[in-house]
Automatic annotation (TrEMBL):
Keyword Transmembrane helix carried by entry: yes
Cited CDD domains: MATE_eukaryotic (cd13132)
Domain of life according to the entry: Eukaryota
GO cellular component: membrane
Protein name listed in UniProt: Protein DETOXIFICATION
Membrane topology note: Multi-pass membrane protein
Signal peptide: none
Pfam families per UniProt: MatE (PF01554)
Biased composition, class Basic and acidic residues, residue ranges: 11-22
Keywords, alphabetical: Membrane, Transmembrane, Transmembrane helix
Record keyword Disulfide bond present: no
Compartments, as annotated in UniProt: Membrane
Amino acid sequence: MAIETTPLLEHQTDGGEEQKRESFVKEFRDESKKLWKIAGPTIFSAICQYSLGAVTLAFSGYVGELELAAFSVENSVIAGFSYGVMLGMGSALETLCGQAFGAGQIRMLGVYMQRSWVILLTTACLLVPIYVWAAPILEFLGETTEISNAAGKFALWMLPQPFALAMIFPVRKFLQAQRKVMVIALVAAVVLVLHVIFSWLLILKLQWGLVGAAITLNTSFWLLVIGQLLYIFMTKSDGAWSGFSWLAFADLFGFVKLSIASAVMLCLEFWYLMLLVVITGRLSNPLIAVDAISICMAIQGWDAMIALGFNAAISVRVSNELGAGNAKAARFAVLVVSITSIVIGVICFAVVLVTREYFPHIFTSSEAVAEETTKLALLLAVSVLLNSLQPVLSGVAIGAGWQSIVAYINVACYYIVGLPAGILLGFTFKFGVQGIWSGMIGGICLQTIILISITSITNWKREVDQAESRVKRWGGSAGED
């Protein structure tokens, strides 16, 4: 009996393992479809929106080295500061809209969006002095007088930008929470085509230089706002938009608190990279160094849009599943998106290394700048690989509402470890921009390891209870009236 039973038991065991593998593959495939349904159009629209600045950067590079440096510094430091604040403040909406949608509180999405508008437009007003006094701020941070003055003039022309961002981010989060990402992608594609045409016309053909760049950029940002708002107002977004409401001004303190936590979390990441450009401006021959690092940042920015797409997708998936009470589904979504992002990161790593002799010439006609950019390709490739996973884990944090915890982690990893290490390597040990960037990479690497650890030990059932409490506390019951 024993001789006959043992093979049978082994066969049953093998069969059970085979069924588990097949079940895992099926679940992985199903979850991937859900993620890509959100991430695909979001990546496309993010690339289109990011390309507005990258296209302008490319055209500015063909005007002259000073124009390229001025646009790069303003875009990285002044606009980068503003973008980080607005994106961070708007990201609170991902937590609230996603969890409200998962809980079936559809009407509250429109109310949350309006609350976010109130907060972000107020914030935009507070950011105006940074644009007005951009030149002395940049010079104080260590940029040369020549670059600071040129960037300061450009910043004045970009004053409408923070107000456009204050409208764009809440609208985008509102639509993403409902998985209406194709609308965002379509509007972004149309605006990008118009942006390329008018950038060529105003910057090169009419030779308006940075003034033409500012006019084109501002117009494009506001076209994004108008296109998406027209869709929301005309379709009512399946009941999520029911018109303007006084509820938008209710419990603003609680909303501001979560918005600030979100802003700190994401701003610390954006400003960390922004400081790379600022510190580089203190090196010898800063014009070439700033141009080279700016080109690398542009390439990294395009890659970051892929991660940003998954950031939005996993934030929506986690917040929806937590709002619906599905702890197991939320945990599995995190596993699937992490594996997918790492695979894409490896591919992008290889692409950067293979094209390192060619991509600098897209942005500049200067051989000196192109040569310096090529030297940074390996560090760029490593950054691209790390940034394939790190923003995704930040998306998990947003979906679950962990913004405050991640903010503390970012401070420690970026500003206590990464930044001092970069300054030490760049200036004390004379490794220049490569040393500065290496220190920064060290901070990102440490942060990624910590986020992986936190995500791995998370009690998702407890997160479900907290999501239910959050929806009720910030007006969920109002959606039933």
